[in-house]
TrEMBL record:
Chain positions covered by the region annotation Disordered: 78-127
UniProt name for this protein: NADH:ubiquinone oxidoreductase subunit NDUFA12
Organism, as annotated: Sphingomonas brevis
Amino acid sequence: MGILANAFTWWNGASWGTMINSRRNGEEVGRDEAGNIYFRHRKDPKRRWVIYAGSNDASRTPPGWNAWLRGTIDDLPEKGLPPRRKFEQAPQPNLTGTMAAYRPGGSLAANRIRPASTGDYEAWKPE
């Protein structure tokens, strides 16, 4: 699919129109580890946007770049934020709908046996 898929779909990265507009009116300011490309408008630097590498999912934007996109910080994340500390975990995208999503013990998809009822539930009865 590749390049042709982007010609007709917006959910799989940028369409051709978005790429042309971004290159014409925007200035590329950086890329993150996932390959997302960040832009700011040439005439109005407060206008900022991202072109995702792959599916358009905002949860795939790292926290530092998210802060830059929203205008929380003015400098790029490398300059405007302190370096990541050793105890901080790397950010993860939203895993809902994937096989890595959280499934509680009673879930049918968890492939575990649901614990027996403890009898502490009392049904509501209208009076």
